[in-house]
Structures
1.
Amino acid sequence: MSECFNEFFCNIGTGLAETLPKTDVDPLSYLINYTHIRFSRNLTRNYSGDHQQLIGISMAIIKDNKTILVGILTHMINTVIRTAKFPDSRKIARVRPLHNKGDNSDRNNYRPIFVLTAISKITEKVLAIQVRTLFLRKL
């Protein structure tokens, strides 16, 4: 069953991506280059073994050591923005199927839940804040 979910979830994104229109817009034009990170209070302090096995470091460790790590994280995130490339090492996630409704044996009745690394969550939140800020400035 896990192989069935794996194949289904791995291929569904490619099909959706092919339906999106092509664009010549530079993705960096949407971002603002911040030189520091403000740690959000809504980043959960997860001590679960799952997270630590997946990534080797928990959000709790990052939050407890934020004054030490902020410079490193800022450099990493600015590199993502500058190069417009999200490193493969930060694309690793544990995928868990969550049943929505209907027949349990039909894989279309499940949606994937991605357990992301702490560094990926922080990077995505910073990028989301930048995109929202830019969008609001353009209104």
2.
Amino acid sequence: MRRAKITLFLIPVLLLGCTRAARTKDSNEIDVNNATVITFNGSAVDIAGDGAEYSDKTLTIKQSGAYILSGSLENGQVFVNAGNNAVVQLVLNGVSLRNETGPVIFSQGKGKLEIVLENGTQNTASRNYRLSALKKHNAVIFAEDQLHIYGDGSLTINEAYNGIRAKSSLAISGGNYEIKVHNKGIVSDRVLLISGGNINISDSNEGLEGRTITISGGKIKVFARDDGINASGGKIIGEMYIRITGGTVDVNALGDGIDSNGNIFLEGGSLKVSGPSEIRAAAIDLDGQFIVSGGEFITAGSVQSVSSSTDQPVVLVSFTGEYASGSTISVKNAAGETLLDYTSETAFSKSGFSSPSFKIGETYTLFINEEKLADIMLNSLITRVSL
């Protein structure tokens, strides 16, 4: 039955004794037996349960609780208007949603919206960006306050101006995402947190954006016509940062690959960036400090600067010529073991890289397209070479 499919997500913790990995400690446990089941069928909607009503192409969620959505809504909106401090959980259980004039899902007011991507389901959301680019709520999924998305299902967003946006905080801790947008893929006006999930932003002007961006897990791949990951919107440098502590991040950008108007902290995980090699546009660009204390990174493109506060060795390389897109950069240790390996998605004349295996005083070999280019001895925390 439809309700039984989501038992693992929604049965209270007292009955399970534990929660799924996709849930976080601040997620609200809502009894599945009280969930309202909503089935879309074109322009018609069947509602079994309380807290929701449908009128004039709009499904309105009026109170806190869990709502299970399935079926196809051809041109309409899921409007969450449950009041301040409400907690609403939308379980996407195989839905196809489209709205030509506004967000497909719009959460209004000071409250928390949780979107669960039900295990094994394919869900799609789209809108015509040409009709909505200049509108205030210009995203397929828009929350005026807090938004948390998780689960083991899939969500495809396309034909959109912006993909997912929250004005306060946006957290993603699970799910599989295919996002293709005209402007921004995933954006929070303040806090963006990614701790899990597989996120593929295959087309965007900017991929991820927030005043502060923290990536602690998941697999992220971004193509951007401008900046791939951008921390902006604060008044001073200290208010803005990108912090990577885990997960894998792969960025291909025509503008800056990683761009922070404040600081960048690499503390874990894996970061690979293809971006420009110019001074004013770089694979890694920032206004504050780039501090490397863990994890690994490698770029096909320039790294603007590295802070003297870095405590893991970093190598910055300038090449006399330019290597074509598709060239492979490899770094091996004295035993011939490959520590870093990256195939560029742009042409480049500069590169930067770091590995937790790097040690000052040891020598590492740089290969381009499997041909040895140079032996590089790490003579300090920041080693600069011209080849």
